[in-house]
Amino acid sequence: MRVNGKEMSLDSNQNLLQFLVDNQFDVATLAVARNGEIVPKPTYDAVILCNEDTLEVVRFVGGG
Amino acid sequence: MTDQLVIGGHNFNSRFILGSGKFSLEIVKAVVENGGAEMVTLALRRANLGGEENILDYIPRHITLLPNTSGARTAEEAVKIARLAREIDCGNFVKVEVIRDSKYLFPDNYETIKATEILAREGFVVMPYMYPDLNVARDLVSAGAAAVMPLASPIGSNKGLCTRDFIEILVSEIAVPIIVDAGIGRPSQACEAMEMGVDAVMCNTAVATAKNIPLMARAFGQAIESGRNAYLAGLGRVLTQGEASSPLTGFLED
């Protein structure tokens, strides 16, 4: 699975919420696109990841 | 009588919009408080694994967040960034910023119009960053922009109010709030923009590159308020010749 441009290993049948929590992401402060599609936050625990997935996990930073 | 800035149905007492780039997180709160800003822009970037500090922890809770679409080179990319930002549940304001010129960082006005139309239809309060052009400003308003944000000079340059005359035209012709954004380098320039009748000023680099950052934020806050008061007071007339401040003495012989 590719996360933010880097290859990562995936435990089988892991859902997106589990994946984020296990990797110490603060879910409340981020947004996720999976294979180019935005994942609505309430559905994170229902999205089952697979090795072919590409995730973009983003959060706010300083900007003008 | 209150003089509030109204954007997309939201009222603001401050006409200072602060960009949060180029600051360390620890100083962000001091800058916001010293400047009296009530709206702060943010960018959206990849999160790092393993836990990291969150800028939202450093911005007071009452502040309206204005995510920008920086990084977008097309309307499609800007729309995607805006939709992602909205997932972080921080309101529905968005600053549309579409830039494909990497030297001067000028916005692509036409892609900005396209993105504005899509996002306004989706319920965003859209504040598009634009190169001051009256026709484009009119198209942005027709597309649903809640305000128009013309640049003063290139982003990050501190060059000042280079597009003064064209911003003045927008102030005169465009009904939605005009917010000067990008290139303002000194509080006096922010004050000058406000004296012209601009509705708000946005600054980032001018504060972030100052020697005393919180104090510069305060200077900008004061300058923007001062310029607004001057505009409301009505600037005095300008003469080409002199006019004495007091009448003739009457007691000195000719």
Q: How is this structure best summarized?
A:
Chain A is mainly beta and 64 residues long.
Describe this entry's structure for a reader.
The complex is a heterodimer of chains A (64) and B (254). By secondary structure, chain A is mainly β. Chain A has one helix spanning 16-22; strands at 2-3, 6-7, 30-34, 37-38, 54-62. Chain A has a five-stranded mixed sheet, with no helix packed on it. The longest helix of chain A has 7 residues, at 16-22. Chain A is globular and about 40 Å long. The model of chain A has no long low-confidence stretch (mean pLDDT 92). Chain B is of the alpha/beta class and 254 residues long. In chain B, 35% of the residues lie in helices and 16% in strands. At the A-B interface, strand 3 and strand 5 of A face strand 4 and helix 2 of B.
Radius of gyration of chain A (Å): 11 Å
Major beta sheet summary of chain A:
5 strands, mixed
Terminal Cα separation of chain A, in Å? 33 Å
Question: What is the total number of structural domains of chain A?
Answer: 1
Structural class of chain B comes to: alpha/beta
The overall strand count of chain B is 10
Order of helices and strands of chain B: EEEHEEHEHEHEHEHEHH
What percent of residues of chain A are in strands? 25-35%
Major sheet attributes of chain B: 5 strands, parallel
Strand/helix succession of chain A = EEHEEE
Topology (elements, then pairings):
The complex is a heterodimer of chains A (64) and B (254).
Chain A: E1 2-3, E2 6-7, H1 16-22, E3 30-34, E4 37-38, E5 54-62
Parallel strand pairs in A: 1-5
Antiparallel strand pairs in A: 1-2, 3-4, 3-5
Chain B: E1 5-7, E2 10-12, E3 16-19, H1 25-35, E4 39-46, E5 64-67, H2 75-86, E6 93-96, H3 109-121, E7 125-130, H4 134-142, E8 149-150, H5 164-173, E9 179-181, H6 187-195, E10 200-203, H7 205-208, H8 213-233
Parallel strand pairs in B: 3-4, 3-10, 4-5, 6-7, 7-8, 9-10
Antiparallel strand pairs in B: 1-2
Helix pairs in contact in B: 1-8, 2-3, 3-4, 6-8
